[in-house]
Amino acid sequence: MAKQSLEKQGTDQPEASTKPIFCSKDSKVDTAMHDDSDISNVLGKLQETNEGILPTSISPTKSLPCKTGEHEKHKNMSTENLVFDNDYTLTPEDIETSSFIRRSYKKAIVVDIGNNVLTVEHLQPNVNGGWLLDAVINTYAYINHMENEYTTVLSTFQSRLLLGETGGVEPKHKKPWVSDIGRRCATRHMVFVPFNALECHWSLLVLNFRRKQIQILNSLASTLAFRDEKKENILVESIQACMEYAVEASLVSLAEPINLAEWDKHMYTNIPQQNDSNSCGVYVIKYMLAWNGCEMNENFTQEQMNIFRQKICSRLLRSECNLRRRPSYKEPLTKEEYMANNPEDCSVAQGDSSDDDVMVTSTGNDTNNCSTSNTWTKKRGRPRKNGQNTKPATQLVSPESAKTIAERVQGTNHRASIPSQYQLSPYKQH
User: Fold this and answer.
1) Which of 129, 223, 246, 377 has the most Cβ atoms closer than 10 angstroms to its Cβ?
2) Hey, which CATH number is domain 91-318, 3.20.20.150, 1.20.210.10, 3.40.395.10, 3.40.50.1000?
3) Cα–Cα distances in Å, from 293 out to 208, 217, 269, 371?
4) pTM for this structure?
């Protein structure tokens, strides 16, 4: 695992956030599996017609070298002592973990770190070469301590908030998360904002407060059609609004005003690029670990990223922060074992059924074992009356009324009906 050694400079450092910055257990996780073939087909077509579809508003730039004497000033101190040698070597433990994820019950919760909950199904794309889910990106950033006095990471859930997909930044109705994001961004050297570009590609926006730059790190930088400038602009404007609100609320005081609209924007093209259609999330994680504000601390290839995606899965499962960590991952986790050992998760496990009208209830005979057939029964609609909670029926019709009704039915005491002209039928004899 990449390890950090931070050197604190002075005592007047920005206060680290005490609240969880990543997706909570109650947050909606984007678990949609994207079709890799669609992305691959689009990528192939775009490469064939590259000249006719490139946007012209902002041209890509190569990595801008730091000025002489300013490299130490502008680089990200939190990434200087990271060690990446072990990221590209699969150990027997890593292979064992990958096999565990492939064969285990997909609904089983296997990672619980910092209010981030991941199931086997969430981690299967890591070992099967799929599209990484946002919760995986957030959780791995958490265990690597990217939230420190130098950098802060906005979760993918928070980036959706800033983009307005779940409410957005409302000037008249400020919410607690607005001031929290504003305070964190205004007191760090660098802000990482992973976001879903064009709903099919993970990209990374970086706010470099030392260089006063908006930096775009895109693993498909050579194909500008996979750049979402609209979302980039919305994110910048929303973060600006959050910082202004934090200043108004006296949560942070600035030596000089911050205006992100005046900053230069650069998309870097000489950074490692993906060669497939589903590794963008892996590259985003690696960018956050290796980017020092000027350049990557290391160079990495597609083959190395194919190994790194499995290392991510292994490290999440075996992390000391994981409340669902298992003593061994040699044997797969079956549904029966999981439900027997985690009765509180049985209601989630029953979600495998596609029938939304089924209500699962317990008979109360055995509250500790959820795998037996007698414990769980399925009932539709209103609960059946068993006689214990029912009252005797009240007699609503008196004997006199019943006799009158019988006479009317027999025709001895009923009023003759006179049909109107519209009810007469030419086929009926009158």
Assistant:
1) 246
2) 3.40.395.10
3) 7, 11, 14, 53
4) 0.68
